[in-house]
Q: What sequence folds into this?
C-alpha cells in the first residue's frame, strides 16, 4: 500500500501542472484502479456506464468511491467529515471531491454553485443521496436538497446500484461501513479477505419533474428497481 501511495503521489505531482479539474478526475481514476487489486476486486458492470451529468447511487461503504472512481473520470460529492478521514480523506481531496455541510444553509448554497459548474463543464458528478451508508438491506430515502441544480436543467441523469459479495465473511458487517464502525480496524479486516466481489448496475433516467423532491423520489425508485432486478 505504501508503494501505491508513493506512485499515486508522484503521479499527482506530475499531472498537477495542468491545473485542471479534468486532470484531477483522471488521476483519481488511475489511483483507484491501483488500489482495487489490494482487495481482489474486479468490478462487474451491468448497463451503460455514464460519462457526464449526475449519477446517483446507493451507499454502502467507503469502497463505493474507490470502485466507481476506477470505472470513469468523475467528481464525487462527499460530506465534510470525509475530508479528515485517514487515507480516504487524502484520496477524496486530491481527486477534487466537492465537500458539503448540509447543516449550514450558506455552505449548501456555495456547494450548489460548485456542483452546477461541474455539470456545465461536462463532468460526471457522483452523489450518494441517502446521505449516509447502510448495511445494504434496503435503500434509504434520498435527500433532495442537493438535487436542485439538476432538477431545473437538462443534464443527463443516471442511477447506479452497488452490491458486494464475500466468500469468507459477512458483507453487512465487513464491507459495509455504517453504525459506529471505526475506519482503520474495518479497513484492515477488509484487506485480510481473499476477494471482494462487486457488481455495479447502471440505468439512465428520464426526468419527469422539475421539483427536486419529486426528482429525489423518482431516482430512489429507480435505484430500488435496480436492486429488485439484481440476482439474489
A:
Amino acid at each position: 500500500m505504501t508503494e501505491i501511495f508513493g506512485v499515486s503521489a508522484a503521479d499527482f505531482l506530475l499531472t498537477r501542472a495542468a491545473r485542471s479539474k479534468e486532470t484531477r478526475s483522471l488521476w483519481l481514476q488511475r489511483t483507484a484502479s491501483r488500489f482495487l487489486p489490494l482487495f481482489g476486486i474486479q468490478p462487474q458492470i451491468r448497463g451503460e456506464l455514464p460519462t457526464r451529468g449526475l449519477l446517483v447511487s446507493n451507499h454502502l461503504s467507503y469502497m463505493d468511491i474507490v470502485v466507481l472512481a476506477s470505472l470513469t473520470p468523475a467528481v464525487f460529492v462527499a460530506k465534510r467529515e470525509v475530508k479528515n478521514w485517514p487515507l480516504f480523506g487524502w484520496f477524496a481531496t486530491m481527486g477534487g471531491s466537492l465537500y458539503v455541510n448540509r447543516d449550514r444553509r450558506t455552505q449548501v448554497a456555495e456547494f450548489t454553485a460548485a456542483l452546477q459548474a461541474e455539470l456545465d463543464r461536462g463532468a460526471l458528478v457522483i452523489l450518494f443521496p441517502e446521505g449516509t451508508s447502510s448495511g445494504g438491506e434496503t435503500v434509504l430515502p434520498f435527500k433532495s436538497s442537493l438535487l436542485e441544480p439538476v432538477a431545473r436543467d437538462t443534464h443527463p441523469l443516471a442511477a447506479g446500484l452497488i452490491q458486494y459479495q464475500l466468500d469468507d465473511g459477512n458483507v453487512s458487517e465487513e464491507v459495509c461501513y455504517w453504525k459506529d464502525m471505526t475506519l482503520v480496524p474495518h479497513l484492515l479486516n477488509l484487506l485480510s479477505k481473499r476477494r471482494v466481489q462487486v457488481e455495479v448496475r447502471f440505468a439512465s433516467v428520464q426526468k419527469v419533474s422539475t421539483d427536486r423532491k419529486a426528482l429525489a423520489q423518482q431516482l430512489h425508485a429507480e435505484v430500488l428497481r435496480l436492486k429488485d432486478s439484481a440476482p439474489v
About this structure: The beta strands are 44-46, 53-57, 75-79, 98-100, 124-127, 157-166, 196-205. The chain is about 40% helix and 15% strand.
